Amino acid sequence: MSIPAFSHPAFRGWFGVARRDITPPVGIYARSWGAAKHDRASAVHRPLTLTAVVFQEAPARLPVVLVAMDLGGMWLREALPVLENVIRSAGIPEERFLLAFSHTHAGPSVDSANADKPGGGHIRPYLAGIEKKLGEALGEARDNLQPAILEAACGRCGLATNRDLFHPEENRLLVGWNPEGDADDTLMVGRVSAEDGRCLATLVNYACHPTILAWENTTISPDFIGAMREVVEKDTGAPCVFLQGASGELAARHQYVGDPRVADRAGYSLGHAVLGTLYGMLEPCHELDFEGALESGAPLAVWRANPRKNVPELFSAQIATVELALKKEWPTEAEIVRRMAECPDRVLMEQLARRLGIRQSLGDGSHYSSRHRLWVLGDVLFVSVPNEAYSELQTTLRAAAGDRALFVVTFANGSLGYLSPKSSHRGGSYASRQSPFAEGCFEQTLQSLTAEIQKLA
User: C-alpha distances in angstroms, 3 versus 280, 287, 293, 341, 404?
Assistant: First the structure.
């Protein structure tokens, strides 16, 4: 039996990319933390970006569109109108459009319900500007299409740690570094190359909450993601696109600070891990072929790098819907509004306001139809999750994908809350309390998506 050649999971097709700066004005309402003493952003640490990525199987065919944005996320009530407007204008079917948020906690508010807060007058114009820039970037990316190959590799990075810490004296779970907890360190890197080998873009899929800059920080920042991009883009000369993974229980060890240098150091560590993965890959569009045995001081297995003989061109996009039950005790919109009117505590008011955003996005029904994009680009798969899932989701789905590379993109097309395992619910974690989804929804989502991935793989 011959020894098969080695090559990276890949897709050959057409590719385009474009970027826009979406840094908000200084002074915008930017209160992301209940413990914060400030309301307005005082300065900009690093710019926020919007990057549109387009893949097509051929010039005249429909694309899939991936837009990555340096924002904490959007409630569905804010995200859906933006999505619908852009999709309608571009003529792209729903299953082919994925809007991915980095989930930085040092960004501006994009909730128009905060328009009456200090600096809130900037929010609606800012949202309108984002929608305009999204459309422009998408148009430019489609205009710049060229033949390309996407190749993917799996690396490792130790930035993310487990953040479900049990406090024995208080008998509860806290959100912060758990030195004894396990953490998924998987780093998925996609390299898009032109026919001449030039790097056109990199895709970075890593699971870690961008919560390094916290209540003491008053600047606008993409958190660690900005420094990571700086490192990768300086080396490759091409846009670097960050895709947040399933980071429900994952965050940096050193976090909750006001010093941007801490976020930068974390970003540099991730950026160099990305470069290590890229430099560990074969040259673009190459494979390793086994030539045979060579007798030397030891019997040597000789492999040679040669141009790839075949690059997969399979291309498909679909939506998988999972019906999730909501908690029976989750309050109605009217009940939340009543509690807010009676609430004297600022931190509790923040929590209630977030619950209101979730409830207004859900409506007062008992179930939610969670819609997941499933893309096949040759040997590379993408699955979107519109909520904050625990990392077991991505480790299980990647195992189901087998030899194919799988990018798990969370905070996709708007978000509502956490998807955490039954153990998290029974432990009374913040994730389980914040979430509107009933116990068992994580397992239901995992089972459904695993079955879908197995079909594709």
Answer: 22, 13, 12, 70, 19
Whether residue 79 has pLDDT greater than 80: no
Phi-psi region at 80: left, alpha or beta (left = phi > 0; alpha = psi -120 to 50): alpha
- Does residue 399 sit within a domain? no
The rounded distance, in Å, linking the Cα atoms of 224 and 190 is 19
SS3 assignment, position 422: helix
| pLDDT for the residue 193 | 98
Residue 197 has pLDDT above 80, yes or no: yes
Rounded Cα distance, 218 and 266, in Å: 19
Q: Does position 78 have pLDDT exceeding 80, yes or no?
A: no
Q: Does any domain span residue 212? A: yes
In a domain, 393, yes or no: no
Give the total number of structural domains in the chain. 1
Angle at 215 (CA atoms; ends 164, 127), nearest 5 degrees = 100
Which range marks the domain in which residue 209 is found? 10-282
Q: Tell me the average pLDDT across 285-306.
A: 96
DSSP per-residue string spanning 144-197? T-EEEEEEEEEEE---EEE-EEEETTTTEEEES--TTS----EEEEEEEEETTS
What is the SS3 assignment for 438? coil
